[in-house]
Amino acid sequence: MAVLSAGRGWPRTRASASDGLAAIAASRGLLYGAAAKSSSLVASPELASAYARECGMLVPEVGLKWQALRPDRDTFDFSDPDWLLRFAADHGLRFRGHTLIWYKALPAWVEREITPGNAESLLRQHFTTVIGHYRGRMHSWDVVNEGLDAHSDRSDGLRRSIWLENLGPEYIALAFHVAHEIDPAAMLVYNENEMDDDRPPSDRKRGMVLDLLGRLRSAGVPVAALGVQAHLRAGQAPFAATKVRDFLRQISGLGLKIIVSELDVSDRDAAGPMAERDQAVAAVYGDYLSAALDERGVVAVVTWGLSDQDSWLNSRLPRDSNRRVRPLPLDDTTRRKPAWHAIAAAFAAAPVR
Ligand code: XIL
Predict the structure, then answer these.
(1) Shortest-distance atom of ligand 1 to CA 142
(2) Which one of 120, 259, 283, 312 has the fewest beta carbons within 10 angstroms of its own beta carbon?
(3) Distance between CA atoms of 304 and 293, rounded to whole angstroms?
(4) Cα radius of gyration (the chain)
(5) What average pLDDT values come out for the chain (353 residues) when binned by 10 residues?
(6) Which residues pair with 61 in a beta bridge?
(7) Which residues, other chains included, contact 57 with Cβ-Cβ below 8 Å and sequence gap of 6+?
(8) Bridge partners, 187 (sequence order)
(9) 225-228 and 187-192: which strand pairing?
């Protein structure tokens, strides 16, 4: 409840939003946003100001996942996403929902209680309450996240999950139909990871995604966009620029929009002192965005956090010797880094959509 009581007491931003990433993106018809946790914004007025200054859209990083929302079967805890929605509305930012169906971040009670007999009503009840709560206010919803597995033993590539197990392979179509009934105005997104590399698993994943989305489109399923997570790494084999371009063109050809939905660039494998690592990270941002933004179907870019101080990579891919990771546009005191300048330059150079 502490987060809710923050109410409208947040500081107004003093820095101007007119030169922030969102304003630069908007000049090309693009939307820029970042994932956020209400607890981080409450703890740091500087960080809250930075979100207001840089972003045109917020995405709750954890607050809309089942584990956060549904501590038990009868409770829906909207405190984190509601705080963020109010912050977004007060600062003129759009709001994006992540995520309705995922194989991770599930509370133990769901895994315990779900059966083929009750799975559809569990899904319908969740969607009715959660999508209904934000009806008309969501830019887009990630309806299904990471439904495919490059190492799947199934010919359709579907990932083993409680959803597949209890609802069968039609669960993806079902989820999109139910979501569309409840909020016909939200852009419904299929979100997927690991489609960026020049290695066989990424090649397979891109093929699987094209097959799946092609089948869904032909069957009239209301999927409107692909979310491309794009968790990239500096200092490793580069992402596959040509393959990414071709892939995004093919996705567009299916009549789908594209959201770069969770962009960050890990510096874990980048060598050298901090300034060199920052340059390596910035170069990956610049190269990736200049390839992706050439595709006019890309309507939005979201980074998975805004400041290094609360990047999920601090625990997911930590650096040695307790050095903080530096994968995001702003450093841990919310100052703009080379990554920020690379993103700004890529936005400014993007074709107008
Ligand atoms: C991550 C969050 O950033 C973490 O804070 C949380 O502990 C685990 O999930 N792909 C996704 C996101 O779709 O939901 C994940 O977010 C990162 C990988």
Answers:
(1) 13
(2) 120
(3) 18
(4) 19
(5) 40 66 98 98 98 98 98 96 98 98 98 98 98 98 98 96 98 98 97 95 97 98 98 88 97 98 95 93 97 98 97 87 87 97 98 97
(6) none
(7) 22, 31, 32, 33, 34, 88, 93, 94, 95, 96, 139, 300, 302
(8) 140
(9) parallel
Pocket of ligand 1 (CB under 6 A): 61-62, 145, 193, 229, 262, 312
**Which DSSP state fits 273?**
S
The two structure tokens encoding residue 313: 């990579």
| Strand intervals (E) in the chain | 31-36, 57-60, 94-97, 140-145, 187-192, 225-228, 231-233, 257-266, 298-303
Give the Cα separation of 213 and 222 in Å (integer).
11
Which atom number of ligand 1 is nearest to the Cα of residue 98? Answer: 14
Q: How far is the CA of 262 from the centre of ligand 1 (A)?
A: 9
Q: What is the CA(230)–ligand 1 centre distance, in A?
A: 13
Quick check: helix, strand or coil at residue 48? helix
Maximum C-alpha span of the chain = 57
The token pair at 250 is 């093919």
Q: What distance in Å separates the CA atoms of residue 287 and residue 241, rounded to the nearest whole number?
A: 8
3-state SS class at 225 = strand
Q: Among the atoms of ligand 1, which is closest to the Cα of residue 304?
A: 3
Total count of residues recorded for the chain? 353
Q: How far is the CA of 142 from the centre of ligand 1 (A)?
A: 13
Q: Which two tokens stand for residue 259?
A: 């959201």
Please name the residue ranges forming H helices in 134-199: 162-167, 171-182
